[in-house]
Design goal:
binds S-adenosylmethionine, 7-stranded mixed beta sheet
């Protein structure tokens, strides 16, 4: 699955960002889209934040407005290079999310935007366990990603997007109950909000104190 548009959008940041901007109109624009997962979370300049799978820093740029202690992690050296140029206020680490080079209980907040759908099921489990490990007790994991629409009107739009830009892991993700998975891993009462007829989910989950 996926088309050449996927490769092109990863090669040319202007294309990736243009598609993201256009898609974000569905939730009121890019600035709102980028901050949806952070809504209601209290931060201070000392909050240790990890932007997991940060890409070229598309959401990292909003996180550095909230804290002086932001780290971006991505497996792609090209993404890290771009993020360093785009958002130099953050620190960056090139690593795999399923094996993070951080000590236990390092971060108050782990955030990830539209990246979990790129993971195979077993990889996703490993990543969520790693997120739990690197969070401080009482810390929060917040993310935004695709979800299976509950309103059928939104199916064609989502299906077209996934076909053009994504791989089968995105279909696996929308068929995964992430709230149940997070609960199994140990997160407390994950809060899930559905948007755009259910085709997007925002989840915030806390690690036990
Ligand atoms: C769709 S992009 C999302 C980028 C950014 N967070 C955003 O909101 O636009 C997914 C990112 O996840 C990264 N990625 C994919 N698999 C990864 C893994 N196993 N560990 C770390 N990063 C990964 C990719 O390199 C890519 O930059």
């Amino acid at each position: 699955m996926a088309t050449i548009l996927r490769d092109l959008s990863y090669r040319y940041q202007w294309l990736y960002d243009g598609i993201a901007k256009a898609s974000a109109l569905a939730v009121g624009g890019e600035s709102r889209f980028r901050q949806l997962a952070l809504q209601g979370l209290e931060t201070t300049p000392q909050t240790a934040i990890l932007d997991l799978c940060c890409g070229a820093g598309q959401t990292t740029r909003y996180l550095v407005e909230k804290s002086d202690r932001v780290t971006g992690l991505d497996a792609s050296p090209f993404a890290i290079q771009r993020a360093q140029q785009n958002v130099p206020q953050a620190d960056y680490v090139e690593a795999f999310a399923e094996n993070m080079p951080f000590s236990d209980a390092t971060f108050d907040l782990v955030h990830t935007s539209v990246a979990l759908h790129e993971m195979k099921p077993e990889q996703l489990q490993a990543i969520l366990k790693e997120v739990y490990r690197v969070l401080k007790p009482g810390g929060t994991f917040a993310f935004i990603d695709f979800h299976k629409p509950h309103n059928p009107i939104f199916w064609p739009g989502l299906a077209m997007f996934l076909w053009l830009f994504e791989t089968e892991t995105s279909w696996q993700l929308i068929n995964t109950n992430l709230v149940d998975l997070l609960t199994t891993i140990g997160f407390q009462k994950p809060q899930q909000r559905l948007l755009v007829g259910g085709s997007l989910q925002v989840v915030q989950a806390r690690k036990n104190n």
